[in-house]
Write a structure and sequence with these properties.
- It is a single chain.
- The protein folds into 2 domains: 133 residues, 2-Layer Sandwich (Nucleotidyltransferase, domain 5), CATH 3.30.420; 169 residues, 2-Layer Sandwich (Nucleotidyltransferase, domain 5).
- It is built from 11 helices and 10 strands.
- The chain is 43% helix and 18% strand.
- The protein has a 5-stranded mixed β-sheet, sandwiched between helices. Strands 8-7-6-9-10 form a 5-stranded mixed β-sheet, with helices on both faces.
- It binds 5'-O-[(R)-(carboxyoxy)(hydroxy)phosphoryl]adenosine and zinc ion.
- The site of 5'-O-[(R)-(carboxyoxy)(hydroxy)phosphoryl]adenosine has 19 residues, from helix 5 and helix 6.
- Zinc ion binds next to helix 4.
Length: 339
């Protein structure tokens, strides 16, 4: 019988300080997340300097809590996996340095993980991955379609050319006067309204799986301003529903097309925007009608930033024999295809 693997994951790329221990890449023993949303809310977005300061304050407490909850000590760990990039450089540095310090002081192997690989591997904490597969990654910083032929192999077949889906949600929410992060508020309002305003869909070239959301965002802002100039107001619910309909239409249509073209048997949803109820239900409806493709949608707590997903992706790298060195640095531009 092969030995069990215990990996501690660490995630500090944006505004969550998170540490988790995962057994064999699949079983969560602890998953601690200290969110900073309250501190950034009054600025309407994440302030990098504030994020770094919070990570410094929280990281050792969160590490201890994750070990406590799992009932484990550092010497029982097989490796420490940490988000190396992409993300805010000052925020990433806190996690990378904490991981290096622990690894060095206790002689534990160190593994660098790509944040998006983590989001995708959140799915392995829910079900087994079946290859080849396609993952739709929609977060505050990324919108990507990633094709995987096997564990640890990532091919980006489409990505955003401007704003990420979550970023568009947050900017539109701001225009509507909603608090940060705006995604959940738009989602709630969209369910109460009808998509009566015809907003643009950026399909791009016919064979492209890339995305673009900045034109849509500008169209919403223009619609609001034009109405204001005429002395009219458009119901927030109508704007939210119309915006959401455009985002979902493009995301779902491109994902369906890619799934068929690449002949995948599984489609994984990943990233914070995966929490969107409209997106989840449309994907479920469309993929429910498509034979031979299994759709996996993780629970909300695993869609937003967490460290269990980093430990899960790190386990794959550990099994492949990858080890990080003490020269590891935060890498805000880390490439998923070659990390
Ligand atoms: O993956 P994540 O936690 O952080 C990044 O790696 O970026 O994603 C955060 C993003 C934010 O833009 C937030 O507004 C969005 O996910 N989000 C949503 C919903 N819940 C969170 N967007 C749309 N609908 C939601 N229900
Ligand atoms: Zn993320």
């Amino acid at each position: 019988m092969s030995k069990d693997t215990y990996i501690l994951g660490m995630e500090t790329s944006c505004d969550e300080t998170a540490v988790s221990i995962v057994k064999n890449g699949k079983e969560i023993l602890s998953n601690v997340v200290a969110s900073q949303i309250e501190s950034h809310k009054r600025f309407g977005g994440v302030v990098p300097e504030i994020a770094s300061r919070h990570h410094v304050e929280q990281i050792t407490i969160v590490i201890e809590e994750a070990l406590d909850q799992a009932g484990m000590s550092l010497k029982e760990l097989d490796a420490i996996a940490v988000t190396e990039g992409p993300g805010l450089v000052g925020a990433l540095l806190i996690g990378v340095n904490a991981a290096k310090a622990l690894a060095f002081a206790h002689g534990i192997p160190l593994i660098g993980v790509h944040h998006i690989a983590g989001h995708i591997y959140a799915n392995r904490l829910v079900t087994d991955m079946k290859f080849p597969l396609l993952s739709l990654v929609v977060s505050g910083g990324h919108t990507e379609l990633v094709y995987m032929k096997e564990h640890g192999s990532y091919e980006v077949i489409g990505e955003t050319r401007d704003d990420a889906a979550g970023e568009a949600y947050d900017k539109v929410a701001r225009t509507l006067g909603l608090p940060y992060p705006g995604g959940p508020h738009i989602d709630r309002l969209a369910a109460e309204g009808k998509p009566e305003i015809n907003l643009p869909r950026a399909w791009l070239e016919a064979d492209s799986f890339d995305f673009s959301f900045s034109g849509l965002k500008s169209a919403v802002i223009n619609t609001v301003h034009n109405a204001e100039q005429r002395g009219e107001t458009i119901a927030q619910e109508t704007l939210a529903a119309s915006f959401q309909a455009s985002v979902i239409d493009v995301l779902v249509t491109k994902t369906l097309k890619a799934a068929k073209q690449y002949g995948v048997g599984q489609v994984l949803l990943a990233g914070g925007v995966a929490a969107n109820r409209g997106l989840r239900s449309t994907l479920e409806k469309e993929f429910g009608a498509l034979d031979g493709v299994e759709l996996v949608v993780p629970p909300l707590s695993l869609c937003t930033d967490n460290a269990a997903m980093i430990a899960a992706a790190g386990t794959i790298e550990f099994d492949k024999g990858k080890r990080g060195s003490m020269a590891m640095n935060a890498n805000p531009g880390l490439d998923i295809e070659s990390f």
